Amino acid sequence: MRLGALLISLLSSLLLLAGCATNSEDSKQPHLLLISIDGYRYDYTELHQPPMLSEFAKDSAMVERFTPAYPTLTFPNHVTLVTGLLPEHHGIVANGFYSPELQEYYSPGKTDNDGRFYGGVPLWSLAESQDMKAATYFWVGSEAEIAGYRPSYWKPFVYIEDFQIRVDQVVDWFALPQDERPQLVTLYFSEVDSAGHRFGPDAPQTRDALHKVDAALAQLFARLDELSEQEGLDINIIITSDHGMANVEDDPRYNVDDVLRDHPELKEKFLIRGTAAVYNIHKQDGATDADLEQIVALFNATDGVEAFQRNDVPLRLRFKGHSAVGDAIIVTNDHYLTYDGARPGPIGMHGYETAAVPQMNTLMMARGPAFEPHARIEQADNIHLYPLMAEILGLTIEQPIDGELAPLAPLLAR
């Protein structure tokens, strides 16, 4: 009996130890927090000296110039970051645009929650499809059902919201019980971009906006460190952005309506929409190929801008594979495109080619058990972030993407 009791006791102990090992193994599931600070130019850490981000950068794995896709705009690049696709492939070609296929406008706050506009598989949809929970806080596209999924937790965008609400919610998500906890969380801040537009990238107001975000992140990281110690969580943190910012205050303004003032019959045949760096031209009913050739020639006859029919868009832009691009585009890298009735242009702007305007570059820095401290890559394209994040989370990418793991693999822990 004593031997039997001893065997039972040993067996119970082994089962308990196995259970503890299983729980420990489960608690070590990979977790990823992806943070976007909109408009964070690649040199802002040095220029504006945010305390926490400056300290974070010292030991982080980093891409010193993280190159956004063209056009270097907010909505296209936030979708690129989470799909690994260029805008010409995921279909979000501007912050607002016309879709000939849907015959509808994509408009922030109105139709950006319509999944029909989006191509590709966002990282949160990939995670949910493979039985992993995801949570998104103000990320472009996260309010839509895309590729058949939504995040388990998501927040509708609010332009003005106290940072404390965001910090508390992210901590609460990571503090959920294991079967409810998201392993992927995304977080977004728009304030640095807004200040950069209004006051310029070098302005003290832009510095102040960045320092406010920095203080919120300092609190968030301190609370996550405490939570990680209590719960034994492995949380990897990636900080990046969608684009940089250039001072365009002295750039000559180019009014696209001026070109068509002597050709009112042409203006009625085309829908022309865009931003400071690129405009999309769509043929309307009655427009012919000859009309398109004429309007492109008119814009090309003016210094400071170029116009291309979609099939002739230079390969360097990688921006002609989707109908929403338009039948033609107008582009510039040293002027500010505007139109009749537009509000006065801001001091800071983006959207331009990174090769011509390097201030469009941002950076990427990351810390956590998945990353090699102090690893440095001088330059890489942001399409490669998606496969890196999938690798960290153990997700399988089954759909075609433009990004590859290899360019960012040196950042991973050896």
Automatic annotation (TrEMBL):
The keyword Mitochondrion does not apply. GO terms for molecular function: hydrolase activity. It holds the Pfam family Phosphodiest. Residues 1-18 form the signal peptide. CDD domains: Enpp. This is Type I phosphodiesterase / nucleotide pyrophosphatase. Keywords: Signal. The lineage of its organism: Bacteria, Pseudomonadati, Pseudomonadota, Gammaproteobacteria, Alteromonadales. SUPFAM superfamilies: Alkaline phosphatase-like (SSF53649). It comes from Ferrimonas marina. Gene3D superfamilies: 3.30.1360.180, Alkaline Phosphatase, subunit A.
